[in-house]
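Contributing new records

If you add data, match the layout below exactly. Sequence lines come first and carry their own label; structure lines follow with theirs. Keep one chain per record. Anything else will be rejected by the validation script.
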Amino acid sequence: MAAFVYKYETVKKVKEELKNKAMKALAEIEDQIMNCKNEITEFKNELKQIRESNTSAGVKISEIVFNRGCQSVVEKKIKFHNVMLNQLNTKRETVLSELTQKAKEHKIFNILEENCREQFKKEQDKIEMNMMDEIAVQKFVRQEE
């Protein structure tokens, strides 16, 4: 019996590698999103501490002015990180759509391989049956002689 050779094996491997790369890119973006969210939380905590330090008794005017400057800087950092988070989310959506497309392509090639394998098996079974019929005919002819 002959060995099955899938004619699209190289294409299937390339599709699988592209799918894996897309999965890796998605994981990296997810990690960046988590880091960005953590930084936003840290900035919000820092902003809260700055605001609380302004409300304490005995604060000098120079400290209030300094704290307001720090507060505006932290607010700008939060805005920047929110913009960056939105960009990462849109990037995540595009990579996710690419990943679903690549997963569909990979699945199609798997189904195609299964169909080709079944067709190959049917052909091999047919060849084997023809060989068995030929052997049976030869055996029958020998018995009659």
